[in-house]
């Protein structure tokens, strides 16, 4: 049985990106980049939605440094994309993502990890199929320029910390086991 991990990089105020800022908010350091390269070695299957697929496959076509990502098995959940998909090692699933991920968890031994795909992550978390929730927090606040607030629309979730680490003296990795809640703790509805 495989494990599903939601994996995000975020600003301190919870944004996935910010208008005019470079990737990683310009704060990626050598320690973080080394960990990222090691962490993204093939050995897992990447789950993503159509928007992330379009963005990442475009990068992969132009950047020879994405060979490891291209070699990694990928599953895209979309009702708008059609086969054949041009990015190597990519499977398209047009049906229900939650049902497909439940089946993959039972059938596959490779870990399953998301890449971006905020809507997909929200859907999988709400359905209770996510086993780990990992974020790397970048020490910036992008209240004016921030785009794509990650946690809007999420259910209430309790997070049990299982690992933490600091990269380059400023980036904080937080790795949790999530528990979807029916309401606030102690709620007597």
From TrEMBL:
Membrane-spanning residues: none
Protein origin, superkingdom: Bacteria
Cited InterPro entries: DHFR-like_dom_sf, RibDG_C, Riboflavin_Biosynth_HTPR
Entry-linked Pfam families: RibD_C
Start and end residues of each Bacterial bifunctional deaminase-reductase C-terminal domain: 4-172
Gene3D superfamilies per record: Dihydrofolate Reductase, subunit A
Protein name: Dihydrofolate reductase family protein
Lineage, uppermost ranks: Bacteria, Bacillati, Actinomycetota, Actinomycetes, Pseudonocardiales
